[in-house]
Amino acid sequence: MSAQYLFAPQEVNSVGIKGETKRFPVRRIYCVGRNYAEHTREMGHDPDRELPFFFNKNPDNLILNNGDFPYPSATKDVHHEIEMVIAIGTGGVNIPVEKALDHVYGYALGLDMTRRDLQGEAKKTGRPWEIGKAFEHSAPMGEIVPASQIGHLSKGEIWLKVNGAVRQKSDLSQLIWNVPEIIAHLSAIFELKAGDLIMTGTPAGVAAVKPGDVMEGYCEGLGTLTAKVV
Ligand code: MN
Fold first, then answer.
1. pLDDT (0 to 100) of residue 50
2. Could you give the C-alpha distances from 2 to 9, 13, 199, in angstroms and in order?
3. From 11, 42, 173, 188, which residue has the greatest number of CB atoms within 10 Å?
4. 158 has which bridge partners?
5. Ligand 1 center to residue 47 CA distance, Å?
6. How far is the CA of 33 from the centre of ligand 1 (A)?
7. How many whole angstroms from 166 Cα to the centroid of ligand 1?
8. CA nearest to 17, candidates 200, 148, 134, 183
9. Cα–Cα distance between 57 and 44 in angstroms, integer?
10. Which CATH number applies to 14-228?
11. What is the DSSP letter of 29?
């Protein structure tokens, strides 16, 4: 007999897949902090290979299909962070760097929207980052492109424009920790499972948005992602 619930459970959060009718069910969303040297410096830190660190967003924070980004509550300083995203197809623990790409289903383009003022206060007081990072609608996400279609991503332009003006621009080759290294580190801390998404960090140029702004992101191989701030 299947379980009886007190109320209807939330639907499974999922992301569309390019060229597929099936959807990618999302289990967890991990994010890598400070993974481009220039961005690390702009946030006031030394990029010289400090170990990668991670935080999470919630699967129900996703915005799909180039949907609008509602300006969030409790902040006066919301920043865009354009990021390449890894979609895990096969889980594991202690995955070695040499085997890491076998665990990747595909890649997507995402925005790690950040209440920078609240994140800054959390940093200052030694409190957790959720208040700055894991709020409603904080994760606009494009469709997943399978690695079987584009191979694995180790280089390629990534940028974000706001109202047509370039704000962030770099290349995936500038990642401090590349895709296999991220998977190796993360899987030594948590058990990765199929359905996990990993946002790989943002290039320099993060800045505030305001209602009416249109964010347009791009990554070679992944196409564009658009979100209007409303
Ligand atoms: Mn980020």
1. 81
2. 13, 21, 35
3. 42
4. 170, 219
5. 15
6. 6
7. 18
8. 148
9. 23
10. 3.90.850.10
11. E
Ligand 1 centroid–CA 177 distance in Å is 14
3-state SS string over 149-214? HHCCCCCCEEEEEECCEEEEEEEHHHECCCHHHHHHHHHHHCCECCCCEEECCCCCCCCECCCCCE
Give the CA-trace dihedral at 6, 12, 13, 18, to 10 degrees: -170
Q: Give the pTM.
A: 0.97
| Single-letter amino acid, residue 10 | Q
- The three-point CA angle 130-96-158 to 5° equals 55
Query: What is the whole-number distance in angstroms between the Cα of residue 28 and the centre of ligand 1?
Result: 15
- Give residue-wise pLDDT tens across range 16-72: 999 999 999 999 999 999 999 998 889 888 887 688 999 999 999 999 999 999 999
Domain borders along the chain are 14-228
